């Protein structure tokens, strides 16, 4: 479904991604794990079109998207939940969700998807008119995920969904990610919580300073000595 082939990405003079290749098949959860600054978020931002690779290719369902505008990429069916959520604090929960559907015009289908989001996230249903900025961290993460789902993506990019959340809530969020995947959405997940990420993923890649150092099934990586030592606490 998605193929990232040997991309090089720079921030000015900083060479952030040094020949990264990742492939995601339809129906999978693929996770990128690695320490701070390894290039995980940069990889997601490049797929969603916010950054352009200097060299290399990104294809989504056979179409080259590396040079495409971010909005066109959303229209193809890729939606990103950014790190830190970036919800609109001064708008209500409902308004945030409506904004997630801005590229669509199929009103009755939008309404259906809104109902599905409220079923998946009952906490949001109870808070439809609450200002998003007053939600708790976990609720804001749910809202950011709900908003991304409102574009009806086929590929969902999730950047550190567990960030800043208490352990119980992390469990809840990961359970929901698994359910979203089981209902047909392919997922590329960036996480520092390697334990949780490997527990739900099919495939995984380890990033270190802009390079992929290990790749395999999630099970292979969770059994790997190097991964256990560096990312799973021994
Ligand atoms: P984290 O988990 O801390 O977000 P990450 O693996 O997602 O880490 P990136 O955010 O992708 O890492 O950063 C990769 C490298 O690119 C880092 O060295 C970072 O300092 C650099 N970088 C990221 N954003 C910028 C920017 N806007 N300008 C300059 N350098 C940047």
From TrEMBL:
GO BP: L-amino acid transport
Designated name of the protein: ABC transporter ATP-binding protein
Keyword ATP-binding on entry: yes
MF terms in GO: ATP binding; ATP hydrolysis activity; branched-chain amino acid transmembrane transporter activity
Assigned protein family: Belongs to the ABC transporter superfamily.
Biological source species: Anaerosporomusa subterranea
InterPro entries (alphabetical): AAA+_ATPase (IPR003593), ABC_branched_ATPase_LivF/BraG (IPR030660), ABC_transporter-like_ATP-bd (IPR003439), ABC_transporter-like_CS (IPR017871), BCAA_Transport_ATP-bd_LivF (IPR052156), P-loop_NTPase (IPR027417)
Entries under Gene3D superfamilies matching the protein: P-loop containing nucleotide triphosphate hydrolases
Keywords in alphabetical order: Amino-acid transport, ATP-binding, Nucleotide-binding, Transport
Transmembrane parts of this sequence: none
Keyword NADP recorded: no
SMART domains (UniProt xref): AAA (SM00382)
